[in-house]
Each structure stands twice: as structure tokens, then as C-alpha cells.
Write a structure and sequence with these properties.
With about 325 residues, this protein is α/β, with parallel strands linked by helices. It has two domains: about 1-145 and about 305-310, Rossmann fold (3-Layer(aba) Sandwich), CATH 3.40.50.720; about 150-295, 2-Layer Sandwich (Dihydrodipicolinate Reductase, domain 2), CATH 3.30.360. It has nine helices and 14 strands. Helix 4 packs parallel to helix 5.
Length: about 325
């Protein structure tokens, strides 16, 4: 399969390119750069800022090509409609996903899109409809679900290690990022519920199943930004199993799940963000005794890409 990357985003450079280079049967064709006409919200930028952005993109793509091969495409549109690729990876800010994923599907390209797939339910439905209509794969890259630690913990729970499950708690938050980060701007699809809360909802639906529904939710704002900064919620299913979730992007770092059972408690601290090769640890508490267990290391990003490739096949 011939794959292209629409832009030199941080996650594309740091995670996608190293992962794709290890997967057999995939050829990296190239990476695109934005042109002046495609710049989102360009009216808010000065001519100097636009030139700087274009120059920086070219430098980043040149470095990628020097390391991984491939070619530079002179615009997002050029790479998305190119006959040289079969699939496109889209790691743009969330508000831009729909436009470029739609164009890709309309031109017969399989789509691997970063989470969240879009910022509107109707847009995601439309992309799914287009993919089905054109017999194409579209995959939203919530890669944490493929990490072996998830399956390992699920198996422990299934086998009754902590008895009957009474409650799940999931928490994910990180410290404030630079002020120009897209997450703090509404026009780019920013906000904690879209960025961090999506992980919570995805994991909750994996735990609770198809009947998952929101019982209670709070989103919180600060005076500094026009997007939500943190929040919490309660999700339940038809069996009244409950997930409590809390998230934020101006928080002390936390990335944990707690599973409270009738006979014990499981906790672990890197449930959503364990990088390749990292060995997560899990604590199983029964009574007053704690057992510390090493969980499997894994490459969840690579496995998510492989899942996408298998869908294409």
C-alpha cells in the first residue's frame, strides 16, 4: 500500500513516521505542505507569519524526506488527490479533518485520521457514508486501545481477579501547553472535551459496550480561553455498570484507570499514553496487600496503523 502524509505535524514526525518505517508492505510516498490558499484562518496572520509558516513546513518535510525517502507535495490538495498514493494520513487540527478526509474519500483514497475524526457528529456520519459508498477504509487513530496492557487488564477482570466490577474510574489530563497550541482555539476544534475527553469516551465505550450513555457531565471554562479546559462525567450502560471520568488540559499530569471490584482494586498509571517500549506497571490491591505487576510493553501506534492496513485489505 502506498501512503502519504498530508502535513508535517508533531505527531506525524514523532510517532507516525518511525512506526510506518517498521511495517512491511507499506511504501511511504511523501508528505504535503500547505500552500497560501489552503492556510486555515489565514486572515488573522500577517504576511511575515504566513511566509514563516510556509518556510518551516518546507524545512520539516525536507528533513523527513532526507530520513525516510519519498517526495514533497506542494499542497494538501496535491497529495490528497494524487494517483501516487492509495491512502492518506491526516494529522491536522480537528476542525480541518472533515474537509480533507472527505476530499480523499471522494478521490478513492483510504483515510487514517487522527482523533477526533471530526468535531461534528454529522460530519463523521458523512465520512462513514462516503467510505462505505466507495468501498474504502476510514480509521480514527485512538491507538491506546491496541496496547497489550488493555487486553491484559481486561483478561484479569474477566477471570475474576478482583471479583465483580463495581466501578471504573478513568482520568487523563496534562499541564498547560504553549499559548499558540491549537487546542486553545475554537476555530481549530480546540477544547478539552474534544481533545482529552475523547479518550475517556472511547475507553468508556470499550468497557461498557453499545448501550453506553451519558448520565451526567460537566464542562469547565477559565477566563483565559474561549474553549473548555477541563471536565468530568458519568457514563453507564444498560446493566448499570458505571464509568466515572475526569479530564483536562491545564492539570497536573494523570493518565490512569482504577477498577474497583468486590474483592480487589486494579490501578495503573499510563493506560492511554504508553509509548513504544515503555513497561507500564499495575497495582492489584486485595485487603491491605498490594501486588505490583509489570504490564506488557507494546507499540500501540504501530498496531493502530496495522489495523488500518488490515481494514484496507
Amino acid at each position: 500500500m502506498r501512503i502519504g502524509v498530508i502535513c508535517p505535524s508533531e505527531i506525524a514526525i514523532r510517532r507516525f513516521m518511525p512506526a510506518i518505517s517498521k511495517i512491511d508492505g507499506v511504501k511511504f510516498v511523501g508528505m504535503g505542505i500547505v500552500n497560501k490558499e489552503e492556510l486555515f484562518d489565514s486572515e488573522s496572520l500577517s504576511a511575515e507569519e504566513i511566509e514563516r509558516l510556509l518556510r518551516e513546513q518546507k524545512e520539516k518535510v525536507t528533513n523527513i524526506i532526507n530520513e525516510y525517502g519519498g517526495k514533497m507535495f506542494e499542497s494538501y490538495r496535491d497529495i490528497v488527490i494524487s494517483d501516487e498514493i492509495d491512502a492518506i494520513y491526516i494529522p491536522l487540527p480537528p476542525s480541518m479533518h472533515y474537509e480533507w478526509a472527505k476530499l480523499a474519500l471522494e478521490h478513492g483514497k483510504h483515510v487514517l485520521v487522527e482523533k477526533p475524526s471530526t468535531i461534528k457528529y454529522a460530519q463523521s456520519e458523512e465520512l462513514i457514508r462516503l467510505a462505505e459508498q466507495n468501498n474504502l477504509a476510514i480509521h480514527e487513530n485512538y491507538m491506546f486501545q491496541y496496547h497489550e496492557q488493555i487486553a491484559y487488564i481486561n483478561e484479569l477482570v474477566k477471570n475474576g481477579e478482583i471479583g465483580a466490577v463495581r466501578l471504573y474510574r478513568i482520568a487523563f489530563g496534562f499541564p498547560k501547553r504553549p499559548a499558540n497550541d491549537f487546542r486553545y482555539f475554537k476555530q481549530y476544534g480546540g477544547g478539552a472535551i474534544v481533545d482529552v475527553g475523547g479518550y475517556m469516551i472511547k475507553y468508556a465505550t470499550l468497557l461498557l459496550g453499545e448501550s453506553t450513555k451519558i448520565a451526567h457531565a460537566v464542562i469547565n471554562y477559565t477566563d483565559e480561553y474561549d474553549v473548555d479546559i477541563y471536565g468530568s462525567g458519568v457514563l453507564v450502560n444498560d446493566d448499570d455498570l458505571t464509568v466515572q471520568m475526569a479530564y483536562g488540559m491545564d492539570n497536573n499530569y494523570k493518565c490512569e484507570v482504577e477498577i474497583w471490584g468486590s474483592e480487589g482494586v486494579i490501578t495503573t498509571g499510563r493506560i492511554l499514553t504508553a509509548p513504544e517500549g515503555f513497561v507500564p506497571t499495575m497495582t492489584i490491591r486485595k485487603g491491605n496487600e498490594d501486588q505490583l505487576v509489570d504490564l506488557p510493553a507494546d507499540d500501540s501506534f504501530g498496531k493502530s496503523i496495522q489495523y488500518f492496513i488490515d481494514c484496507v485489505k
